[in-house]
């Protein structure tokens, strides 16, 4: 029985997140970010000001197969902004196969990789060009743009990992918020967060992308 061997990928990646050789891409716009930010009034005001089609972030990626052992490689470009005092964020996720890890390497801009475990540990890893965050399995993670320019990262993770986006929403948001201060940024506890449930993590193994 013969096995089809995938072709190697030849990618040209720019500091602006451009990727020659990408096989797919997607965008997230302001109208799709409902429920992500804690300050709903500020979100609705920004939505009225900028409109639902305002770009929040875009992703380009290269994937040739999705089987175990393969990799997905891509770029994430998160535009600057704030909703209330929260910096712009991606939706964030835990991998559907929760033990799968991911690498984020900052190409340009400045930001934070916000990391949390289901049992209450939280870390905020600052990133600038040339720095990387190695996100182990079982860590929920979200990108945050704390600067005035696009926050661009190169990411790589196992192709069978999938993403579970609902785990954050089901918990009332992440336990920490990244907010602006006079000196830059800081984390602040999210009073709406009521904990990640073990049931949600177990269920994540049965959810797809």
What characteristics describe this protein?
209 residues, mainly beta, Jelly Rolls, 3 helices
Can you describe this structure?
By secondary structure, the chain is mostly beta strands. The chain has one domain: Jelly Rolls, CATH 2.60.120.10. 11% of the residues lie in helices and 40% in strands. The strands form four sheets. The chain has a six-stranded antiparallel sheet, with no helix packed on it. β4 and β5 (71-78) form a beta hairpin. It is globular. Mean pLDDT is 92; it is low at 203-209.
In short, what is this structure?
With 209 residues, this protein is mainly beta. The chain contains 3 helices and 15 strands.
Weakly predicted, low-confidence segments: 203-209
CATH class: Mainly Beta
Topology, number of strands: 15
As a percent range, the share of helical residues equals 10-25%
* N/C terminus separation: 30 Å
- Given helix and strand content, the structural type is mainly beta
Q: Give the count of helical stretches.
A: 3
Strand order of the largest sheet: 3-4-5-13-8-11
Corresponding CATH superfamily: Jelly Rolls
User: What overall geometry do the principal axes of the alpha carbons give?
Assistant: globular
In CATH terms, what is the fold-level topology?
A: Jelly Rolls
Mean pLDDT, nearest integer?
Answer: 92
Second-tier CATH architecture: Sandwich
Question: Which strand-content bin applies to the residues?
Answer: 35-45%
Domains counted in the coordinates: how many? 1
Radius of gyration from CA coordinates: 17 Å
Q: Return the string of H and E elements.
A: EEEHEEEEEEEEEEHEEH
Largest sheet: 6 strands, antiparallel
């Amino acid at each position: 029985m013969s096995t089809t061997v995938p072709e190697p990928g030849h990618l040209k990646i720019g500091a602006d997140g451009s990727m020659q050789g990408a096989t797919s891409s997607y965008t997230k716009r302001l109208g799709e970010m409902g429920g992500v930010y804690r300050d709903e009034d500020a979100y609705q005001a920004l939505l009225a000001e900028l409109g639902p089609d305002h770009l929040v972030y875009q992703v380009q990626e290269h994937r040739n197969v999705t089987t175990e052992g393969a990799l997905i490689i891509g770029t994430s470009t998160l535009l600057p902004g704030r909703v209330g005092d929260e910096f712009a964020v991606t939706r964030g996720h835990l991998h559907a196969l929760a033990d799968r890890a991911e690498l984020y390497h900052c190409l340009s801009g400045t930001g934070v990789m916000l990391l949390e475990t289901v049992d209450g540990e939280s870390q905020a890893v600052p990133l600038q060009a040339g720095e990387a965050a190695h996100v182990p399995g079982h860590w929920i993670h979200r990108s945050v743009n704390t600067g005035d320019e696009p926050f661009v990262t190169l990411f790589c993770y196992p192709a069978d990992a999938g993403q579970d986006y609902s785990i954050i929403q089901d918990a009332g948001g992440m336990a920490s918020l990244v907010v602006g201060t006079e000196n830059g940024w800081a984390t602040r506890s999210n009073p709406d967060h009521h904990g990640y449930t073990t049931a949600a993590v177990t269920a994540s193994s049965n959810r797809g992308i």
